[in-house]
Every structure is written in structure tokens, then in C-alpha cells.
From TrEMBL:
Known role: Irreversibly catalyzes the reduction of fumarate to succinate.
InterPro entries cross-referenced by the UniProt entry: FAD-dep_OxRdtase_2_FAD-bd, FAD-oxidoreductase_2, FAD/NAD-bd_sf, Flavocytochrome_c, Succ_DH/fumarate_Rdtase_cat_sf
Cofactor binding notes: Binds 1 FAD per monomer.
Name of the molecule in the record: Fumarate reductase
Domain FAD-dependent oxidoreductase 2 FAD-binding: residue ranges: 4-448
Catalytic activity: succinate + NAD(+) = fumarate + NADH + H(+)
Cofactor(s) essential for the protein: FAD
Pfam family, one: FAD_binding_2
GO MF, any single term: fumarate reductase (NADH) activity
Record-listed E.C. numbers: 1.3.1.6
Domain of life the protein comes from: Eukaryota
Amino acid sequence: MEPVIVVGGGLSGLSAAHSVLEHGGKVVLLDKKPALGGNSVKASSGINGAGTDTQARLNISDSSQSFYDDTTKSAGQLARSNLITALTSNSASAIEWLTKNFGVDLSLVSILGGHSVPRTHRGTGGAPGWAITSTLMKKLAVEEEGSDQRAKILKNSKVVKFLQTGNKVTGVEYEDGQGQTLKIQGPVVIATGGFGADFSSTGLIATHRPDLMQLPTVNGDHATGDGHVLVTSLSSDPGVLIDMDQVQVHPTGFIDPAQPDAKTKFLAAEALRGVGGLLLKKDGTRFVDEMEKRDIVTAKMWEVIQNGQGPVRLVLGLHAATELKTHCDFYVSKGLMKKFNNLQEVAEDIQIPLRDLQTTFTSHKSYASGQEKDPYGKTHFHNSDIHEEEPFLVALITPVVHYTMGGILVDEDAHVLDASGKPIPGLYASGEVIGGVHGKNRLGGSSLLEAVVFGRIAGKRAADYVTN
Ligand SMILES: Cc1cc2nc3c(=O)[nH]c(=O)nc-3n(C[C@H](O)[C@H](O)[C@H](O)COP(=O)(O)OP(=O)(O)OC[C@H]3O[C@@H](n4cnc5c(N)ncnc54)[C@H](O)[C@@H]3O)c2cc1C
């Protein structure tokens, strides 16, 4: 039996590989880097699921319809109902797959911007991306050692070409760590991730969003859109790229005071705002509903920065910092967040009068209690009971290239489609490399989900293709 070839060892490639094995196939997974994980191991806020056991236990009423509605609203005029249905209707089973089949802890749920209820799952340990992805990695390594030899992992192996017979994809050509060019035969799942680090002068950002070339990124250097280029370079009936100008700029990348101009930055997890972090201008006042969608928060930040009212600070009170203690301890240890013993110390650091900060926090508390209406329309408040004598955590933040919504045109079965809309035989794609799932704005927590949902679908379809 031919193996299914999975290109990319992030969460989507790993999900596809496990899905191939579950459906009786053999799999070879290649990654160009010396270690698997991609951007998936960096994910810091969590993975979405609607109608999960965890939500039921926490008395959160949710449904795939509500998740569909939120996603469609966020996707705007670029919403594609077939892809959104696939994402949202498979979300609870994706969470269940991770928790039951792999034992991943996803027992906590928080609300991120643009969601109508809490549905972003994470565990009690460290970053959710690492917790989920490393578990799937370890399990695949165990499968590789198994007696039936149905799984093989090739690291330092960069796929440079897809092989074709007619319009059918029949394998890949790859360069190994010794510089040799080798071939493997079999249907292919592309899971190479996005192009959020492709800043070369002829690259995908320069081509589709030249205005973002000067921005920093939170992507790993692998994210150069290899899959996008490979699929459009097919010699017969190539694949198609859609929505390539839709690049998500995340509002909160940390500015590291030790290297403020670094091109690659750490992400300040969206969950920091979810637990109650406030965004403040240089004068200590707020300027946006912190729980708004990323595109809106980013646009407001640009206004602030361009009007000379920056830098923008992210400020957490004691309860918010305690709720995300593991994250915050890590950021403080990296020098990305600074701890102050009280509000007075924060005011001294920013060099503004204490009373200005007092006004900001007292007003916010009064909006949270419903005594007054928030001028920015905020309705979800969390940990807003902040006392000025308690410790605060403060970080300088800036917008960063985060996620690329555009990518390969697929259908809801993860088939790669050609320009006439027909599936290219033997070719599937999943994860950030696919386009159109999130329209013009991805909701936080929906990319890990996309990686798992479409990875599982692609793995199943590719396994069926070999065995049928
Ligand atoms: C800092 C950060 C935080 C995030 N937080 C969240 C979050 O909390 N929740 C959420 O839902 N999303 C989050 N995201 C987005 C999410 O992590 C990614 O979109 C998702 O993990 C992408 O998964 P993937 O498997 O498609 O790609 P990746 O995980 O990027 O993996 C792609 C893999 O393909 C390999 N590869 C690339 N080209 C080739 C080639 N030619 N040959 C062989 N291998 C190749 C790469 O080396 C890499 O290992 C975050 C992203 C970042 C950067």
C-alpha cells in the first residue's frame, strides 16, 4: 500500500497523519525543520469548540449554530458557508478527539474577542499550542516505533516539488539534510502553514500586502508559504490561491525593551485581554473595547500610534494576572512584562499623574458594574475589580503580522481545487495553508481548530483514496 505523504509537521500535519493511521493507511510526514511543531507550538490562547463537555460542565450554553453565526459575522463579505460549516460543526468532536484519544487537558474555557460566549479551550498547564501539538508529536513517534511500521517521520526534509501523472498528484520530491534530492510516491496532504514570515523582496507579503513589509511578525521563519507556491506551480491544472491580501495583523505583539526593533516578536496572548487586560494610550486613558475583534482593535491602535498618542500599554490587575499566571510568569521572566507593586509605581513609570490612572480604572469598574455605559461599547467585563494598592503587570505592545487568512482553494472535504473548481486527484490541504475559512478576519482560537478539523478530514480522504 502506498503511504499518504503529509508535508508539514505542525498541528494540521500531525492531525492528518493520525487520521490516516486511524483510517487504516500508512503515512510519511516530512518537515523541513529539524523539529516538528511549526507555529502550532506557539499558540497561546487556545482552541475553539462549541457544545463541548467542558462547556457543559461550566454551564456555558453554546451551539455550533452560534459559533457559525459569530464566524460568519467576523468573516464579513468573504464568508464561505461550506468551509465555516465544516469548521464549526466539527468543533466539539475535534475537542473530544484531542481530550479522549490523546488525553490533552482542555478543561478551562475563556471568551475571546468576537465570540458571543466562552468557547476557547485550554488546559491548566502551559501554552495550549505546545500542550496539544507536543502530545500528537509524541504519539506519532510512538506509532513510528510500532511493529506494523505504518508511520514514518522525516525531519530536515524540505518538499520542493509535487510529482504529477497527467493532472493527478502522485508524490513529492524533497531535499534531505545532506542536500540529496529524493522522491516518495503517494497522495499528498499539504500542511505547510502560512506565509507570515515571507518578507523576501519577491515573496508573498511583498506581492500581496506590500504595506505590511515593515511590520514585525510573531511567525516562525518556516512560515514562507511553500505550499502556496508548490500548488500553483503544478505542471498540469494547478491549484488556485484566494484572499491572499487578507493578512491578520494582531494588535498585541510585545515590544521587548531589550530589543525594541526586533523583526520577530513574542505574541501577547489574546487571552490577556480576555481575562481583563486593558489597553492604554500614553496618557493612561483607554481608546477601544478590549474585547473587540482583532481587526478593530488593530485599527484603533494604528490611529493612536499615528496620532502620536503611543506607545500603547497592556495593563493587567492582580486578578487577571493570577488567572493567567503561567503565561504571565513566562512573560515576566522574558522581560516582556514588568511587575509594579501598585498603581503609583505604574504612574511613575509612565510619567503621568496617578489620578489619571485612578480615573481610568474607577471608570472601567463603574462600566463593568453597569452603573455607567462604556463609551467604547464594551459589554464583556472580567476581573475589573482592580485596587490601586495591588500589584500590576504592564507591557509595551505593537501590531504584528500574525496569521494569513488567504491560501489554497479547497472544498469542505479538503480537496485542493483547480481553476475550474474540480478536485485535483491525489491532493489535499489543511491548516493555515488553506484559504477562505475565516474570510476577512479570523476569530481567536479558530486556527488550531482549523488545523485539527481540516487535518482530520484531509487524512481520512487521503487514506480512503489509497485504499479504494
Ligand atoms: C505566536 C502565535 C500564537 C498563536 N496563538 C493561537 C491560538 O491561541 N489559537 C489559535 O487557534 N491559533 C493561534 N495561532 C495560529 C496557529 O498557531 C497557526 O495558524 C496554526 O498552528 C497553523 O498550523 P499548521 O499546522 O497549519 O502550520 P504550522 O504549525 O505553522 O506548521 C507548518 C509546518 O510545515 C513545515 N513546512 C513548511 N514548508 C515545508 C516544506 N516545503 N517542506 C516540509 N515542511 C514544510 C514547517 O516547518 C512547519 O513545521 C497563533 C500563531 C502564532 C504565531
